[in-house]
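Q: Convert this sequence to structure tokens.
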Amino acid sequence: MNQFLMNFSGGFLYFPEDKSLYLPAAIEFAILLIIVFVTFRFIRRIAARQAAQAKILEERALKERDARIAKENAKEEYQKQ
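A:
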């Protein structure tokens, strides 16, 4: 079976007998997982700030639009009288 895997994969698969060789890979994986988690949290925090700023900007634009529409409606009402 082992010979079949070696022939099938072209020698790509390597399963060492000494399992202590897995330790550096496990440590690297853990470090990278922590880095990915921190980066993900950082990006989400920035996105939340940008969403809050966009909401403030949207509310301001809607208030300005409503004020402009109210002013135009008032002008039309005045002109009808």
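Residues 19-80 form one domain.
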